[in-house]
Amino acid sequence: MRQTQLFTKTRREAPSDEVAKNAQLLVRAGFVHKEIAGVYSYLPLGLRTLNKIVQIIREEMNAIGGQELVMTALQDKDLWSRTDRWDDAKVDNWFKTTFKSGGETGLGITHEEPLTRIMTDHISSYRDLPVYAYQFQNKFRNELRAKSGIMRGKEFMMKDLYSFSKDETEHAVFYAEAREAYKKVFERAGIGSRTYVTFASGGIFSEFSEEFQTVSDAGEDTIYIDEEKGIAINKEVYNDETINKLGLSKESLIEKKAIEAGNIFNLGTRFSDVLGLTYTDETGTKKPVVMGSYGIGPTRLMGIIVEALGDDKGLVWPIQVAPFTYHLVSLGHNGDEVSKAADALYDELTRKGVEVLYDDRDLRAGEKFAESDLLGMPYRIVVGRDGVATDQFEVVNRSTGDVVKKSRAEILAL
Amino acid sequence: MRQTQLFTKTRREAPSDEVAKNAQLLVRAGFVHKEIAGVYSYLPLGLRTLNKIVQIIREEMNAIGGQELVMTALQDKDLWSRTDRWDDAKVDNWFKTTFKSGGETGLGITHEEPLTRIMTDHISSYRDLPVYAYQFQNKFRNELRAKSGIMRGKEFMMKDLYSFSKDETEHAVFYAEAREAYKKVFERAGIGSRTYVTFASGGIFSEFSEEFQTVSDAGEDTIYIDEEKGIAINKEVYNDETINKLGLSKESLIEKKAIEAGNIFNLGTRFSDVLGLTYTDETGTKKPVVMGSYGIGPTRLMGIIVEALGDDKGLVWPIQVAPFTYHLVSLGHNGDEVSKAADALYDELTRKGVEVLYDDRDLRAGEKFAESDLLGMPYRIVVGRDGVATDQFEVVNRSTGDVVKKSRAEILAL
């Protein structure tokens, strides 16, 4: 895409009303726009990254048998009353509103209830199980504070997958598959090496839930990591009993700040019991369906990537989630030889299907480089007078700062 | 996809609480699930169709220079107060709610206000114009009645594009391009021949707005069509003056019921004036930006396709929006020769990238055919004992009912 065509502009200064690094950088770079505290629009570059994150997650969910659907924000009060999650005294972050046609509704904070009800229409026999269904959908949570940028929004995108299994054994097999799928997601999103399966409090149905925690100074959680085994314990269950149970030893655990990037939960029959989601087994006996839930917030994950990888010059995108792989920066002016060479390189790369953001504007080199650092594409290709003369162009790695020189032919073969 | 893997089941009976044909058929076929009156979830088959509609619209919007972004549902009360569209006395279909952190918010009914404000950060010079930006985003409208299924939901997906131009002349050029792009969308979605550019009341900024009206008995609007010229007049502006102005004659106009499938509006400087969206022109003069808005609801369009093409046996999908192009129906049982032949055909078609829904279940032929008609894929391929013996398989056109016989090689070459 030509930057002369891109409508967003960057800002030199961080917005004064943002404290989180992710929001400061994303707003400065024109990736997101703050509508209200904790509520962000995604502008073209931001949406490109968000869509790439979504696609990575979608592929990994499909690979473990997930079927995609999409549920609604508006929720049925009666349904949530049955599971005792409507009352503000029980769940304190609903946005509630009323229908002009009468009655209350609320904006979905999660979707166990509606999906369990949908499944009562479709699951009746052991032959119908297991089922894995997921969605990408905007959740609403009426948070009191909003100081984490897109990492904790009042309106944010969630990928929530729910599993429906015959029994604990069948459930356990999928639960383990989901864990591996999540590892692949974080690996592909560029934060695999700093993200740990972390044992946390489990709720009512199992001793532990599993979180995926990404090490970052911006983290709200404290975790204790066993680097060698690649697992961690959340502070909330960090005690001798847990350490022993997991076969770890206190000496090898390192305390770090971390951000929760995903979680997987055993739900047991909490929802199927109350909402009547049962099936008839091979012997004709009616049994409740065993459920699990598996969440990753794509918008939150985008924020975590910025927190973990961004530096003092700006955003740093891993290749698989970058809006564009290359930032082609022309130092030409007004259609001179350099501009023409840059135009030609852009056209050829684009024709080959390579994703290139092309800075074809007539600005000073220093300004262009500073903005290029801020936008954070993985590689910058500089087309200047020397490069055109010698057929040796600088290719700068945004993450490491390494510079290599490549010929036009080498760039086209990348 | 194998139907033994698809979690949704169909129903023999239409749900008693649905009056609209689109909702009756889509719920029966397991494409959508009603959460609350006027609020529908999209199940895997429904989501596939919705995504295809979205992709058609996206391609056509990109082709006329649209840049995709996505804004939020939660809206800033102060912003909407400035344009005088917050007060319930002025706009009567808001869902309003409150932040726990204090203050009111509402769920976006449309997005002129927030996008105009976003553009004040990015547009300042004539060099920044024109800009065309669009989104696919869920709108919320607190409708009193909900009897049109997914054609008029309280929560529904909208593609809304907004144009930002220097002056009326530049605006008019894009407006005409958008009209042509819309025609292409309806053509590709399979309802082009029954959809008419229809002149309707224009609001404050122009004499007429343009609607795209699709002829259907379920229509809420009445239009007067000139078949030869391919345009129509909405009843609301149907009078001698309009007829003359458009160069039509009363005698050639036919009255029909129709459903609004899209619309394009001149907004003039209504929003840019109030919200301060100005630019500096070539002479250094500050001017307000001239705007337009262009809407198509993908969920509504899906409902219109069902209303227009569905028959008494069920859904009828045009090829470009069908969840799958082929419905491969095996009449085999328990791994017999017929099942094996169907399995092999499914595998080969899928390997070739052909989209096939494969009914691999062990059910009676009559039941399978009835369900296949209900689901409405464009072509049904029947694999039975005779077909396997003679290498001549029935291929049934869902829309026309035409049956042709094709060999395995011919099917693979389709």
Descriptive notes:
2 copies of one chain form a homodimer. With 414 residues, the first copy, chain A, is of the alpha+beta class. Helix content of chain A is 30%, strand content 29%. Chain A contains 12 helices and 21 strands. Chain A has helices at 21-28, 44-63, 77-82, 112-120, 168-188, 240-245, 270-275, 298-309, 337-351, 365-375, 385-390, 408-412, and strands at residues 32-36, 39-42, 67-68, 74-76, 96-98, 104-107, 131-140, 155-165, 195-201, 208-215, 221-226, 231-234, 253-268, 278-280, 286-288, 290-296, 326-330, 356-359, 379-383, 393-397, 403-406. In chain A, the strands form 5 sheets. A 5-stranded mixed barrel of chain A has the order 9-10-13-11-12. A 5-stranded mixed sheet of chain A has the order 18-17-19-20-21, sandwiched between helices. In chain A, β9 (195-201) and β10 (208-215) form a beta hairpin. The two termini of chain A are 18 Å apart.
